[in-house]
Amino acid sequence: MPQIEVWARLPVAVREHLIERMHDRKISIEDLNRLRIWLASKPAVPEGRWYKDFGTFKVCGEGAYPKTFLLPGQVAAGPQLWTALAQIQNSRSLRLKFPNAPTFASENVKRYWFSLRTEASANRRYSTFTPQQSQLYASSAEPYWS
Amino acid sequence: MTLPAQVAKQIEGIAKRRRLSDNRVLVELIEEGIEVHKQKERAFFHLAERFRAANDSAEVKRLGDELGRFVFGE
Description:
The complex is a heterodimer.
Chain A lengths: L11 H11 L6 H12 L8 E5 L4 E5 L2 E6 L13 H4 L3 H7 L34 H9 L6
Chain B lengths: L4 H14 L3 H32 L3 H16 L2
Helix pairs in contact in B: 1-2, 2-3
C-alpha cells in the first residue's frame, strides 16, 4: 500500500488547489492540525480513491496523492480511512484494556450477550463474596488443645 | 514498555556517557520530546493564523506553501 507523498512531490496544480482549499475559513485550524498529526504517522493508503474525515473537512485522495478537501455536506468517493487505533494488530487487547463502561458501572454490566460473567467477582476465578480464607482463619485460630 | 534493541542500545550509551541511569535518560528524552511536540504545535497554529489572515495573493501562496510543507511534510 502506498504512503502519502510529501508536499514537494505533489503536482504543482494539486499544491495550488490545496492551498486555496486550506485558506477556506470553514476548515478549522484545529482539524488541519489533526491532519498534520495523522500524516506524521506516515499512514498507508489504498491504491485507488480514499478519504478521511476530520470533522470540518474531509481529505480526499487517490493512491499516494491527496487531491482535495471537501466540506461536510459534500460526498467523497472511495472507502473511508479510520484511525490507526482500530487498525493496529493488537486492537482486541486495547478494547479489553479500555472498556466502554467505567469500572464501577461495569460491576453490574453484562457486556456481551454470550458472556457467563454477571458480576465483578466472576472476573476472578477464586474470588467470592464469602472467601474461604476467613473460614480457614477461624478454624486455625482455635486453640490446639481443644 | 519494550524498546527496540537499537534504541535501547543508544539509551544505554547515553546513560553511560552521562553517568545517569537508563530510566533517568528515558525521562529526560520524553520530556524533551514533549517540549518539541508542543513547540511544533505552537509554530503550526501561528503559521496557520498568519496564512488565514493574509489577503495578498502572493503572501497567501507563500504562506500556503509553507503550511503545506508543515502539514504534508518535506
